[in-house]
Amino acid sequence: MLEKIAWMTMLYDFYGQLLTERQRDFVELYYGQNLSLGEIAGEFKVTRQSVHDTLKRAEQLLVYYEDKLGLVARYRAEREKLAVAAALLDQCISTVEDDRLKRIKEILCEFMDPEE
Residues 46-63, buried b or exposed e (16+ Cβ, 10 A)? Predict the structure, then answer.
């Protein structure tokens, strides 16, 4: 389930603006704030089934957009390449003391997540 939450959150980050306002609201509450279908239904005064159907449609659309555009896949591939480049730089820095290499590594790391 955690994998699905992470996957949907990432898809939402890339494609969320392509959803309707209601779909965005439900996705944010369900995946972002971990509200149950019943809690969302109560807040919007709709049925639990309506929330479920809206979420399923939003999930399908997010997956469809990724299938067609591939932005998340490209993002992940670029992150992997950056991580490999950073590791190679670490090897160079450990054998050659050069401030330029350290600066290159700093610039490269600006494009990577802090935990990488």
Answer: eeeebbeebbeebbebbe
Residues 1-10 pLDDT 10s: 779 999 999 9
Whether the pLDDT of residue 115 is over 70: the answer is no
Amino acid at site 112: M
Give the pLDDT score at 113.
Answer: 63
- Compute the radius of gyration of the chain from its Cα atoms: 20
Q: Which CATH number does the domain 2-69 belong to among 3.10.560.10, 3.30.530.20, 1.10.10.10, 2.60.40.1180? A: 1.10.10.10
**Residues contacting 69, CB < 8 A, separation 6+:** 15
The DSSP H or E segment spanning 53 is helix 48-69
The greatest distance separating any two alpha carbons of the chain, rounded to the nearest whole angstrom, comes to 65
Domain boundary assignment for the chain: 2-69, 73-110
